[in-house]
Amino acid sequence: MHYKYDKIGVMLKNKDKTYIPEGFLLSAGEAAIKKPGKKDIALIYSMTEANIAGAFTTNMVKAAPVRLDIEKIKSGKGQAIIVNSGNANACTGRKGMKDVAETASLMAKSLKINPSLVYVCSTGVIGTPMPMEKIEAIIPVLTANLGRASLCDIASAIMTTDTFPKAISKKVKIKSRTGTISGICKGAGMIAPNMATMLCFIMTDIAVEKRTLSRALKDSVKKSFNRITIDGDMSTNDTAMIMSNGALGNSEIKENSASYKIFKNALDEVTYELSRLIIKDGEGATKSIATEVNGAADEKEAEKAAFSVANSSLVKTAIYGNDANWGRIMAALGYSGIKFNEENVSIHLGNIKVVNKGTGTGKDAEANNYLRNNSEVSILINLNKGSASAKVLTCDLTEEYIRVNAEYRT
Amino acid sequence: MHYKYDKIGVMLKNKDKTYIPEGFLLSAGEAAIKKPGKKDIALIYSMTEANIAGAFTTNMVKAAPVRLDIEKIKSGKGQAIIVNSGNANACTGRKGMKDVAETASLMAKSLKINPSLVYVCSTGVIGTPMPMEKIEAIIPVLTANLGRASLCDIASAIMTTDTFPKAISKKVKIKSRTGTISGICKGAGMIAPNMATMLCFIMTDIAVEKRTLSRALKDSVKKSFNRITIDGDMSTNDTAMIMSNGALGNSEIKENSASYKIFKNALDEVTYELSRLIIKDGEGATKSIATEVNGAADEKEAEKAAFSVANSSLVKTAIYGNDANWGRIMAALGYSGIKFNEENVSIHLGNIKVVNKGTGTGKDAEANNYLRNNSEVSILINLNKGSASAKVLTCDLTEEYIRVNAEYRT
């Protein structure tokens, strides 16, 4: 097979240029799983067999594609990922498992590669059988169109309630060569600790040894996708995958090397930026909220406290209403399950200290103004107990969230 | 002191008659803590020293009155409870503690009883110092008006965002005599496991031994107030108290007696009914949702699963939208932290089986109709694993919840 290789830089809302890493070809199509007129399926293809790693939902209820991918990825090898939106293929029983295996097999046949190298991902409504005749019909189209889609095109094709496509690229110098790490993702609702209804696909032309790749991804996900929350719900389908095809020609990066550090830093930037875009696009959100807890005994405690505040409906609605109601932050800290002395707690909203030693400083009006004038706000909490900290990203809770989710299937 | 004793039966929305048990006098007043024109303070007084028991918030951040009451109630004795709305006296530091002690002391002086017998409860905004001059001014008024308020009057005085007062009475035959158990409560928002921003006061003229009273209350609260959730938030102030003054003249009820069983059953009915009223009045709620999990390995597991579903914003918005989106119920079960096999799960909405063996039955349209036509809906889940079960009450999540909570302090 021969494909014309396109390197397309697309402009995103956030004005970042994105590049497809060397040796990857993309394709997007309309399988009519979603309403007509919308792209709903994408193919990510590496021209050579690649190293691959993944992180998957910890939900006990796992979609059929997730179950398949978890098994396959043990090999550490992959070459293609087919992703559809509109149907999650979750809670679909044996038929779901059969359908996902067939999808991988049909895709492999069309690409003339081994089915073990093809991964399948899905997002959308739970409990509806996958329309296999539509999948079967679109597969040859996806293959034929390889190389004609940009990162943005495939990011658009996998959207559900997202309002904009999410893609990011990072150039990285590894010794004398400049490689690329690019990622796309989808998010919107049902985002919670441990990567909920979140799909993320990262491609790189930098050669990374397969166990090192897996370690890097898992560690990176922990501080990015696993530290965002929109509504506390966690999905059956979330998946983050990374493919490294080595098209850059560098010698395989191994852990604890100087190159690993450089690669890992760039990967962390990519996953963090993608997380930030997911929060920015939280269903109905008008504000992003960074909740940072400092002075905790350990990181786990800091994370627990930060998530408790970030998941509080009362905190989120107060921020939406530009109301510096720090009592709700104190209450959410109090029921987080961690131990602390309320007399030692201080809270800042932006630069304004609203709580000192557990009681109000009388600067609520000033803090209300801060909330009114900023769409990215920060809640900074100090437990004054130890030296560990954690930051969790979330968004406010609005009437629009209710509308989007009350009418999702109608 | 002499008070005219009033026994007032008031009609509630739910058409139940309520009676003040023998030997109790009630009073309500306007301290102007809330906006003028609204009653915001109440006094519950027993004409004789009573046995008293309490259950309090498990939030690490505890309001000043809660801290005081937890200490006092160790004696098992009490005679008066003064309750204000509009100000929670939480996160108010040392001043808060001083204020609550002073309130108890002033109230005791006015009633000419020992300060150790006076309990103080507060609900409202966190972090604002208590306006003590207003409390001081209203205390003699409360004393002077004792006997002039009904259960409904005091239930009204302690409301915050509640839209109706909540009171209930139960007549109980103990041997040859008929006693009364009456309770009032407030709820609305910030209701979560372990009794959040919930105040509940139960009075009875039936004599119950003090340790027995405490055991009965705690057990009763576990299956009522601790099994309701509105938004998953838990407050700094929640308190449930029961006073037993023995005015009925029965011999003190002790555990494991026949009379205990009768008393406990009636108490359970009172606490369950009050919980139901709280859910009915959830902020912005249009529907009550009973989530029952059956077939769990043990009760703790059943409770965990039921709370996970009841707290899911996505489930709550789907019910609001009359959308039988059972996939969200499956997802919430999946991230609840319990272990189960999704292929064994069945789900009913009302009488309609929407999930069998983990997959859809195709009855979504029928289930949508069920949701559309009912304001009290049930989600019945069977894990088909063991024989334990638990039921949690909640309500749907609506645009109105957002409005109420975004504008609470404005």
List keywords for this structure.
disordered N terminus, homodimer, L-amino peptidase D-ALA esterase/amidase, alpha+beta, globular, Ubiquitin-like (UB roll), 11 helices, 410 residues, six-stranded mixed sheet
CATH superfamily of the largest domain in chain A: L-amino peptidase D-ALA esterase/amidase
Largest inter-chain contact set: A-B, 69 and 68 residues
Shape of chain A: globular
* Proportion of beta-strand residues of chain A: 25-35%
Order of helices and strands of chain A: EEEEHEHEHHEEEHEHEHHHEEEHEEH
What does this structure look like?
The structure is a homodimer of 410-residue chains. The first copy, chain A, has helices at residues 64-72, 93-111, 132-144, 151-157, 210-222, 258-280, 299-310, 313-320, 326-334, 364-372, 399-406, and strands at residues 10-11, 17-18, 24-29, 41-56, 77-87, 118-125, 166-174, 177-186, 199-204, 239-244, 288-296, 346-349, 352-356, 359-360, 376-382, 388-395. Chain A contains eleven helices and 16 strands. The model of chain A is unreliable at 1-16 and 190-196 (pLDDT under 50). With 410 residues, the first copy, chain A, is an alpha+beta fold. In chain A, a hairpin with a 5-residue loop joins strand 1 (10-11) and strand 2 (17-18). In chain A, strands 3, 4, 5, 6, 7, 8, 9 and 10 form an eight-stranded mixed beta sheet that branches. At the A-B interface, helix 2, helix 8, helix 9, strand 14 and helix 11 of A face helix 8, helix 9, strand 14 and helix 11 of B.
